[in-house]
Predict the structure of Alpha-2,8-sialyltransferase 8F-like isoform X1.
Amino acid sequence: MWGLGQEELGGPCSVPHKGKGPPSGAGSPQASPWAGAVRAIMSLNCLPRKWSLALGPVCLLLFLGVALLLLHRAREWAEIQEQKECQELIWLLESKNLFFGNFQYRKTSRNQKRIRAVKKWDIWTEDKNILEHVLLTEECQWDPDAAVVAQYRAELGQCCNASSLLILTKENTPLGSNIVFGKDGRKVPVRPDLVDLLPERSIFSEVQYEHCAVVGNGGILQRSRCGKEINQADFVIRFSLPPARNSSEDVGSKTSLVALNLSSLDSKYQGSQRKRLADALRPYRDALLLLLLPTLQSRARNPPLHSLEDSDVLQRASFLNPQYLDALGSYWTGEGFQPECLSPNFAFVSLALELCQRITLYGFWPFAHGLSGQPFPRHSQVRIRPREFSCYLKMYLQGILRLRLGKCQ
């Protein structure tokens, strides 16, 4: 319809083609898709006036319709190509396990420029590789894989059962039993003073949350304006004592659970400073405090625990169950995750995976610089290990969880 030339339409303005071969552009595969439409509309000038007046608006509408259709098809094609490239990248990073090596992959000019900048950073080569992978995946649209999440949730519930075994309770840790630590099988007897601190049963029994936010203390949260988004989560997990200088606009104010390693805090809150520990925990009076201890001895023999004895903290605190951590480590090792991944942070990401439909990680970042190269303030440089971060990146690529590495607003 749109391919008719002047001679086929007829009229006084028809000009016969001269010379050898077809007219310039006519019948050529390189001809613009708009050429036929333009020629058809221009030919209306050669028709009787009343025909031109009648057919002009119709042809214009048809021309606009074809233009919109072509634009829509072009966008669809671009989206399909982008999806294919992202799928190829994910396959390379995931199935070939190339988190710590270089590989050949098509890069956009924007990616190439940013990756060249990263290569100049004063960090280990394998860390530069991780950053390169982050920059490549950053431009791919992330979609959750509900089927994979459901599978992991079911398997974690079967092997580790956070609902019942995450914390020590009178139900799973009766008086006279032993608590077994680690692969060396070290045993600590359960004594009356410990049993007095344990709840009857786990507060996580038969609970499920729609959306959980797991908030690290990395400097990448600075100026992120993620606070509002974090506060909208149904369950918010935080680690240790978040830096006091962090703005609630960036990190939010809602806290459902705080995981504390009291052994590491003991060096900071010694002697006369121990009261400061209880004071620092006071803002989290509405949250569950989950204590991580290398050994569960009596309060008199455990200084960090003893420092909280006179406060109300122990009345609302729970202890992380070593049995849960051992089962969790065995499960993820069987899934191909390296031992470097299995930190306390990773344990609570696993908890969220078992209890939540959707998981978003904030503030998990292993470097002293952001993606654009800006250094973080020294007080906010709370970092995880690069290899641990690579495990979260792998889970992100699988559609298990979402990694927030930029601004939320």
Remarks:
- Strands lie at 178-181, 186-189, 209-215, 235-239, 257-261, 288-292, 317-319, 356-362, 402-404.
